[in-house]
Amino acid sequence: MVKKYFAVFKPYDMLSQFTGDENASLLGDLHKFPIDVYPIGRLDKTSEGLLLLTNDNEFKNRVLDPMNKSPKTYYVQVDHEITPEACKELAAGTISIKHNGKQHRVAKAECEKIETPNLPERSVPIRVRKEIPTSWIALTLREGKNRQVRKMTAAVGFPTLRLVRFSIGEFDLGEMKPGDVVEIDPNDVIAGWRL
């Protein structure tokens, strides 16, 4: 089997899968991927950003295995001007979120307030309220529960407005635009993940 690796900038309003309802926007709409290639993890429909795809199960398991704690960095636009206290709380590993019907205490993370990142405009603009500012954080997680980032920012009182996964391990979006697909050289995978 020839091992294949792809990086995709998943656009807003697209499912992280190849099959779905007739009207759904799917990964196969972006590129003719080999039939045995699948996404590693997922981003929900309203999230954007980096998605890795491969037919290399060893690589997929390495990225997804919680024991490896692969870092994933998200650029998150939140409602209001986020406070240093909220950033500390997001990083501390003290927040409990609901996951699969149970309470889950999130692992420690890294969080910092950042200037507005240089990202392409979203296809559907976020709602803007003149009297309420927004702000951005870079949040790096080493676990991945369903809608975790959104649940975490809501828990500290700053709901997520826009969510873009910028990087997974050594790979990041770079200059990619929504809908872009880049094939990754297998040597870069080996170097980036020290297989």
TrEMBL record:
Q: Which Pfam families match?
A: PseudoU_synth_2 (PF00849)
Which keywords appear in this protein's UniProt record, sorted alphabetically?
Answer: Isomerase
Where would I find the Pseudouridine synthase RsuA/RluA-like domain in this sequence?
5-155
Xref: InterPro entries: PsdUridine_s_RsuA/RluB/E/F_cat, PsdUridine_synth_cat_dom_sf, PsdUridine_synth_RsuA/RluA, PsdUridine_synth_RsuA/RluB/E/F, PsdUridine_synth_RsuA/RluB_CS, RsuA_PseudoU_synthase, TruA/RsuA/RluB/E/F_N
Q: Tell me which Gene Ontology terms the entry assigns under biological process.
A: pseudouridine synthesis; rRNA processing
Q: What is its EC number?
A: 5.4.99.-
Looking at the record's lineage, which domain of life comes first?
Answer: Bacteria
KW Isomerase (keyword) present: yes
Q: Hey, what's the signal peptide range on this chain?
A: none
- Record-level Gene Ontology MF annotations: catalytic activity, acting on RNA; pseudouridine synthase activity; RNA binding
Q: Which family does it belong to?
A: Belongs to the pseudouridine synthase RsuA family.
- NCBIfam families recorded for this chain? pseudouridine synthase
* Protein's recorded name: Pseudouridine synthase
